[in-house]
Design brief:
Blueprint (H helix, E strand, L loop, with lengths): L4 E10 L2 E11 L4 E5 L6 H8 L5 E7 L8 E4 L13 H7 L2 H4 L7 H13 L15 H15 L3 E5 L7 H16 L3 E5 L3 H7 L2 E6 L1 E7 H4 L2 H12 L16
Parallel strand pairs: 3-7, 3-8, 5-6, 6-7
Antiparallel strand pairs: 1-2, 1-4, 8-9
Helix pairs in contact: 2-5, 4-5
The structure holds adenosine-5'-triphosphate.
Length: 249
């Protein structure tokens, strides 16, 4: 069974001010898509829509029968509160709370799963470390371990490699490749165009509206990238609500 996530003329707004206009297209099941665009293009907003967070949504998003529990989400590192008194293990275990329930005990099999996830991201031995003492790269590895434990069908990554060094990026790209190989759908907001060309077969290029969505070589052309740059810089941040007559590209 294939269950794409389909956008049909979707406009996403904050307080009726559109951040993404009239988006139509689909994420095929098992696809590996980069979302690319300049600052303020609407990339994180799109991730929030996929996470069904509170936003104005016009048009239709068809999740193809997937429930919110089928989605795993890695927010931008800067958005994560690191001051909580939590250990690396606590963070990884949280990946499964939806399935095990908040107060049920954690069995031996699950403890093995956590250990295996930490090993996969190179964080064995860090189980008892407080997250406040981790480097940015170690924190990101820990959050990837949480996603491994979460075992979601769709994995959303918002700028997973910002402020992450090359070696860690390589390791985490390997984990993303593994998820893709397992048939999961991976959607990642990325800024490094070379990295997208090397590792992501599909790209959605947005600049408040869709500039291109499809195979990466066809979408990431110099022309499209120039259009994307010019579109967002020309955008009026205090523009009013979007009218239906604007409903084409
Ligand atoms: N909570 C919010 N309330 C109001 N406007 C918002 C909110 N979050 C984002 N916006 C606006 O929506 C637009 C798109 O923002 P978004 O964060 O989706 O862009 P982005 O492509 O992820 O940018 P960046 O690359 O800088 O992270 C911007 O104009 C931003 O100011």
């Amino acid at each position: 069974m294939t269950t794409p996530i389909t956008f049909d003329n979707v406009t996403l707004s904050y307080d009726r001010r559109p951040a993404v206009h009239h988006l139509s297209g689909r994420f095929a099941q098992g696809s590996k898509t980069a979302i690319v665009g300049p600052n303020g293009a609407g990339k994180s907003t799109l991730m929030k829509a996929l996470m069904r967070q509170r936003l104005g949504v016009e048009g239709r998003i068809d999740f193809g029968g997937l429930s919110p529990n089928d989605f795993g989400y890695l927010p931008q590192l800067a958005e994560i509160e690191r001051g909580f008194p939590m250990t690396v293990s606590d963070v990884v275990v949280m990946g499964a709370w939806r399935r095990i329930g908040a107060f049920r005990s954690i069995g031996k099999g699950f403890a093995q799963k956590v250990a295996a996830a930490l090993e996969a991201v190179g964080m064995s031995g860090f189980e008892s470390r407080m997250i406040s003492s981790l480097s940015g790269g170690q924190m990101q590895r820990t959050l990837f371990a949480r996603l491994i434990v979460q075992d979601a069908q769709v994995i959303l990554l918002d700028e997973p490699f910002t402020a992450i060094d090359e070696a860690t990026t390589r390791d985490l790209l390997d984990i993303i490749a593994r998820w893709h190989g397992e048939g999961r759908t991976v959607i990642a907001v990325l800024h490094d165009i070379q990295q997208v060309r090397a590792a992501f077969p599909e790209t959605l290029l947005i600049a408040r509206r869709m500039i291109g969505w499809g195979s990466t070589p066809q979408v990431l052309t110099e022309d499209n990238l120039r259009i994307a740059r010019n579109t967002t810089t020309a955008w009026m941040p205090d523009a009013g609500p979007c009218e239906p007559k604007d409903a084409t590209r």
